[in-house]
Design goal:
The chain is of the alpha/beta class. The protein has one domain: TIM Barrel. It is built from 16 helices and 9 strands. The strands form 2 sheets. The protein has a 7-stranded parallel sheet. The protein has a two-stranded antiparallel ribbon with strand order 2-3. Helix 4 runs parallel beside helix 7. The protein starts with 12 loop residues before the first helix and ends with a helix. The relative contact order is 0.15. The structure holds coproporphyrinogen I (1CP). Coproporphyrinogen I (1CP) binds next to strand 3.
Length: 350
Amino acid sequence: MSRMPTADAGDPPFLRACRGQPCDRVPVWFMRQAGRSLPEYRARRGSGSILDAIACPELAAELTLQPVHRYGVDAAILFSDIVVPLAAIGFGVEVVPGRGPVVAEPFRRPEDLERLRPLEPDLDVAYVAETVRLVAAETNVPVIGFAGAPFTLASYLVEGGPSRDHVRTKSLMRTDPVTWMALLDALADLSVASLRAQVAAGASAVQLFDSWVGTLSPDDYRQLVLPASRRIFTELGDLGVPRLHFGVGTGELLSLMAGAGAEVVGVDWRVPLDAARHRVGPGHAVQGNLDPVTCLAPWKVVAAETRRVLAQAGGRPGHVFNLGHGVLPQTDPDTLARVVDLVHEEGTAK
Ligand code: 1CP
């Protein structure tokens, strides 16, 4: 029996927009909408490791819902992190405050593949599914599950932490493509297992974050990364939920990314949405793409830029309003609330 849900007019605007259907308003949510820009987040989070907060379903559910309540956004993104499955299988990943994921013993040689065992979601990350269930029971807006894409996860494993140039990652890719492809395959399996468990628990869309893939040329991306990302989307196809695919600095990769199989392609602020629509082609929705730095400007500027993004989306179906990357911690929450109101009042998708 097919589990494919039928899309009807009663579906939430976010899901309709993902499928390219007209809706009464342009849906909006923000990448990294939970987190340090919210005083209620800072108050509730304390100073422990974010991985501990994620492992506590009541707390993670509350942090997921904070921006939904404050901003009136059209989707809740699960409070979690892309490195959660890696930490759960014991690869030795910590998330250091102010820095990000750090790996004590980075991936450097073929033998390191043995450290990547498959994820058993029920045993390894039962708390993630529980958080999804709690959130889905509490809100009417769709819950977005997410995972890291193989390239971006590999970049943390190989570099040992955040990196600007990804020198070691690209070097491994070029010097030992066999180990590289095996690494990406193992990471793809982790993300598929994690995303399937999130959907089974009630997530109604999934986003694959390939945040740092914009560091690659189109040829490298096509040969050494796209096959693994494409397999993830293929293996989620039977779930019938919208799939979103996002990276930063991907102007030259957008058409290839569209070929990976997601319904929605996320776009950063560098590519105007009309050009982005052209690059991803018909049959795909776009998501984006207000520059997060714009949100630090006076409201007059933010409003003008928000209207520019709406104009470049062309008032047509298949646009999910978002930032071009995550909310910056120094953003005034009131600004984001006003952006949501403006998009809801003025955005059209007929
Ligand atoms: O302790 C803290 O509060 C630290 C900040 C923080 C937060 C709030 C980190 C560390 N992760 C998160 C949560 C998180 N991470 C969410 C939850 C949803 C939300 O905030 O609304 C999501 C979706 C992520 C995804 C994530 N983690 C990505 C992909 C999205 C993106 O912004 O590009 C990446 C690259 C990470 C790694 C990561 N985790 C944390 C940081 C600071 C980073 C980036 C480090 C780097 O620059 O490489």
